[in-house]
Amino acid sequence: MNSKVLSPQNYEIGRYVYHPHLDVYGIYIVVRSEMLETPSVLVNIFKLFAENELPIVHFKLSRPQLKEPIRALIFFAIGRRKEVIDSIIEELKRKDYIIEVMLIEPIFKGFVADTVMFPPTLNGERIVILRQPLIKMLLNAIVKEYGNGFEVLLYYIGYEYGKLAYATHVEIVGRDREKMITLSKVLFQLLGFGRMEVADINLKDKTAVVRIYDSIECSSFKNSTRPKSYFIRGMLAGWFEEFFGVKMHSEETKCIARGDPYCEMRFYRAKE
User: Rounded to whole angstroms, what are the CA distances from 4 to 185, 186, 199?
Assistant: First the structure.
């Protein structure tokens, strides 16, 4: 179950483009789901832009889902050749595998954004994206105001969330234990909580040791004299409780908030 944790490479999200010195536009395209396995689809779409000498400056595809249409965003620069936009749109509409095409006008010169797709979802559930400065401000302000009581509350909110997350993971990959561990690590990172390493897991004794690198929670606290992971530790405790099928106890033995290189959490069967 051990896995190597790679050096961080940030992924800049956002369905928008800002090039102040360019005229940028967007096109929203909906493609039939069965075309996902057809290699030439994207090539043919991109070819239209290449033939008209329009550079694509940003491109996004919605995550593919079985039997669901594929939604794409193409942001491109046009220079002074605005007349080609209509012809590209008409050409796209003539393709039998495209369901819908919509032009996205710039909001102001150099700035175009996805104003079509809302709300953002993950596995069909609505999500919201919070920047770290806001998370840091919220955590520090509430902990300062309410102290240990809020820390306990954070843990149990995380605990219940971890149980829900486990149920979602089961829906995706079933109860294959190795796949469950792998999926949980990947989604944990994709959602921005941090990078997870399962340092040790014992199915017989029902114990686990997890290391979190770059924890979004603990990086919000500096120069602490004690570990500060409550929500994430609770989330993992709830997840492992479902995974092992027994009540779990947890403790954080290392934490980046107090200067350790990573946060280390230990999970083991709770005493009856």
Answer: 12, 13, 10
Between CA 66 and CA 72, with CA 69 as vertex, the angle to 5 degrees is: 120
Query: What tens digit of pLDDT does each residue of 174-199 get?
Result: 999 999 999 999 999 999 999 999 99
Handedness of CA 6, 7, 13, 16 (dihedral sign): negative
The answer to whether the CB of 54 falls within 8 A of the CB of 45 is: no
State how far the Cα of 115 lies from the Cα of 47, in Å rounded to an integer: 25
Quick one: the chain helix, strand, coil %, rounded to 5? 40, 25, 35
> Structural domain of residue 40, as residue ranges?
16-118
**Domain-located, residue 156:** yes
In this structure, is residue 9 part of a structural domain? Answer: no
CA separation, residue 70 to residues 7, 27, 66, 112, 133 (Å): 32, 14, 10, 21, 33
CA 19 to chain centre: 25
pLDDT < 50: residue spans in the chain: 1-3
CB 215 within 8 A of CB 222: no
Six token digits for residue 124: 């069909």
pTM of the model: 0.82
Residue 26 lies in a domain: yes
Q: What is the distance between the alpha carbons of residues 151 and 231, in angstroms, rounded to a whole number?
A: 8
Residue 2 is assigned to a structural domain of this protein: no
